[in-house]
């Protein structure tokens, strides 16, 4: 269950508070685990540990009085007969609270291990670890170049409201499309996982004629709102790409595949807690099938760009390895960008290169050409 989904189960009035606290819960999960472990033993049930960590998050980050938070946690724990345990731990914690450092920055271990596999530079790694604890900046992208914008004449901060003819997108996302657009030889393009439309809209703004499809009506509705607001000519169809017949062939295809979204850890810190090898293998299986099908729809000489907002090797280089083993008529194209790090078969966004703009999400991108 995503944070968004869980929060939408609650009345609107409570959602903002819940969202900020849930984000903080996941940002502090490793730190709070280390603190809690000083007060419990290894027999403490996992549901009690979760309640304790939620309560610690609120003690450190909300303005509610501590006694009220503890009372609420104790009352809730009585439902499964753990009220006195929770009461004891929280009271002892509050007695010693001033001796405990609450500014530690321990990054979850699996997140760190996977990040270290990709980024060998200590400077970049430290920046990524640090950014796990920092709320990201929001950006808006202009449909047309504008001298007043700070990055490549297109990117502005989203400090207050969205401007006319601008749409919301991460700066790393913008960099990816900006650097691959010239690889496409033809401006008619099929975007097979297109909604809510960030990349299709950007491509359309660069003169591409986008045919978009997606299987989720909910996501398509968001896309349609943007198309209407920005008055764009983009055709979007509701289709399951893997299970529908597409009879045309294309010279230009974009596949922004579904993934763990690990690269969006700053705005969705819960993704870090969901790193699960079995799930990642399932993701890879779907991603390989999607690349496979996209390559079958590609004309000789055509370009397929594969993107995921993840830095896990299974969803990135692992997918391309499998594809290159299977398809001998494919080459990996070079991508020109000083904001990405090159690996064997693709590129990762380097968030450190966006330091002056507050960092970026992490994406993997590779451009595959079908040989003539
Ligand atoms: C990473 S998001 C795409 C984001 C989009 N390209 C953008 O820039 O805004 C992945 C999308 O793939 C869609 N998707 C997942 N499986 C699909 C399938 N089998 N066929 C078509 N779309 C699919 C999801 O609904 C989701 O909207």
Give a nutshell description of this structure:
The protein has 372 residues and is of the alpha/beta class. The protein has helices spanning 3-7, 12-27, 29-36, 46-61, 66-78, 83-96, 109-118, 122-131, 171-180, 198-205, 217-230, 277-296, 317-326, and strands spanning 139-142, 155-157, 166-168, 188-191, 209-214, 235-238, 250-256, 298-308, 330-333, 340-343, 346-349, 364-370.
What does this structure look like?
With 372 residues, the chain is α/β, with parallel strands linked by helices. It has two domains: 3-99, Orthogonal Bundle (N-utilizing Substance Protein B Homolog, Chain A); 170-370, Rossmann fold, CATH 3.40.50. It has helices spanning 3-7, 12-27, 29-36, 46-61, 66-78, 83-96, 109-118, 122-131, 171-180, 198-205, 217-230, 277-296, 317-326; strands at residues 139-142, 155-157, 166-168, 188-191, 209-214, 235-238, 250-256, 298-308, 330-333, 340-343, 346-349, 364-370. The strands form two sheets. Strands 4, 5, 6, 7, 8, 9, 10, 11 and 12 form a nine-stranded mixed sheet that branches. Strands 2-1-3 form a three-stranded antiparallel sheet, with no helix packed on it. Strand 7, helix 12 and strand 8 (298-308) form a beta-alpha-beta unit. Helix 2 crosses helix 4 and helix 12 crosses helix 13. The two termini are 44 Å apart. Bound molecules: S-adenosylmethionine. Residues 193-199, 213-216, 219, 240-242, 256, 258 line the site of S-adenosylmethionine.
Secondary structure elements and their pairing?
Elements: H1 3-7, H2 12-27, H3 29-36, H4 46-61, H5 66-78, H6 83-96, H7 109-118, H8 122-131, E1 139-142, E2 155-157, E3 166-168, H9 171-180, E4 188-191, H10 198-205, E5 209-214, H11 217-230, E6 235-238, E7 250-256, H12 277-296, E8 298-308, H13 317-326, E9 330-333, E10 340-343, E11 346-349, E12 364-370
Parallel strand pairs: 4-5, 4-7, 5-6, 7-8
Antiparallel strand pairs: 1-2, 1-3, 8-12, 9-12, 10-11, 11-12
Helix pairs in contact: 2-4, 3-4, 4-5, 4-6, 5-6, 9-10, 12-13
